[in-house]
Structure formats: structure tokens, C-alpha cells
Write a structure and sequence with these properties.
Structural class: alpha/beta
CATH class: Alpha Beta
Number of strands: 7
Helix content: 25-40%
Largest sheet: 5 strands, mixed
CATH topology: Nucleotidyltransferase, domain 5
Number of helices: 4
Order of helices and strands: HEEEEHHEHEE
Radius of gyration: 28 Å
Number of domains: 1
Length: 171
């Protein structure tokens, strides 16, 4: 008969069970990490949604909010969302000697383009503002772009986005 106080026989070892448990947990962590990496892949689709009632009269007679213009900036291209119209800046904005020359250059590049027309519309309407979607490649030139938009009298909201996001949708 088995006796717990019997020192002559070896007891049951739980070490193999802990090994199996540890290996199972390790596999589960690996599977979860793989699923997370795959779900955040380079072709990730991001959708920004704006409330359709923005700017419309509410029953109490109050305005529900301001409506944004979505502009993407990557350091070289300024793209209007959702239309996809863009303007490429051939010069590095940081290499221009003064802010005045930078703003003159930006104005000359944007004049007559759909992006420039949208920025003019935002300037004329106090209930509009710009949401600037900035990729990491455009971080270094944010002071120049923001200064230009401030010069136009436009309120700006900066929103960093991932460099690898290719499919952006704005509704």
C-alpha cells in the first residue's frame, strides 16, 4: 500500500506536466504574435469617418460642429483626401533659406491646383479646418507646412499615420 511517509520509493514527479504546459503556452504566444503581425501588415486599410451631420442645424438650433478638410503630407507630396488630388514639392522645404521664401514657394506650387483651391475654401469658411495626416517622412517639415497653413488662417489638427499604410479612405 502506498504511504506518503515512505522514503524508500520515489514519488510522482510533476515536472513533465509543467514542461508540457510551458510548451503549450509558448506555442499559444507564438500564434497570437503571428496573428497580430499579419493583421498589421503593410497593406492595411485605414478608414477615417466623419459624422455626416457636421455643419447641419440641429433641432435646438445649435451647430453640431465644424467640418474638416483632409490633407495628407509625406514630406514631398500634399494630397487631398478623399479625392486623391496631389501636389509634389520638388524642393526640400527645409533647404529654403527663410520662412517667407518657403511660404512663397508653397503658394506658387499650390496655386491653380485642386489642393490649393480646397485650402482657399477652408480659409474662406470659418467653420472648416484641416486635419493634416502626417507620415513619418514628413515629420521634419511640419513647422514649414503648419506655418503656411497658419499664415492662411487655417486651424490645423495634426494626425500622425504609419508610413506603410497605403489604402487610406476618408468618408
Amino acid at each position: 500500500m502506498a504511504n506518503l511517509s515512505d522514503h524508500g520509493e520515489e514519488g510522482v514527479s510533476l515536472f513533465p506536466m509543467f514542461n508540457i504546459l510551458a510548451c503549450t503556452l509558448g506555442v499559444m504566444v507564438f500564434v497570437l504574435a503571428t496573428v497580430a503581425v499579419v493583421s498589421l501588415g503593410a497593406d492595411k486599410a485605414i478608414e477615417f469617418v466623419v459624422d455626416l451631420t457636421l455643419g447641419e442645424e440641429q433641432p435646438q438650433g445649435e451647430m453640431s460642429g465644424r467640418s474638416p478638410a483632409w490633407v495628407e503630407w509625406d514630406g514631398l507630396d500634399m494630397m487631398l483626401r478623399p479625392s486623391g488630388s496631389s501636389v509634389r514639392f520638388a524642393r526640400d522645404l527645409r533647404s529654403i533659406e527663410t520662412f517667407d521664401l518657403t511660404y512663397d514657394y508653397m503658394f506658387s506650387q499650390l496655386a491653380g491646383t485642386p489642393v490649393g483651391a480646397e485650402l482657399s475654401d477652408v480659409t474662406a469658411d470659418p467653420d472648416r479646418y484641416v486635419i493634416l495626416l502626417v507620415r513619418p517622412s514628413g515629420f521634419k517639415t511640419i513647422p514649414e507646412v503648419r506655418g503656411y497653413l497658419d499664415l492662411l488662417g487655417i486651424d490645423v489638427v495634426l494626425e500622425p499615420i504609419d508610413q506603410d499604410w497605403r489604402r487610406l479612405q476618408v468618408r
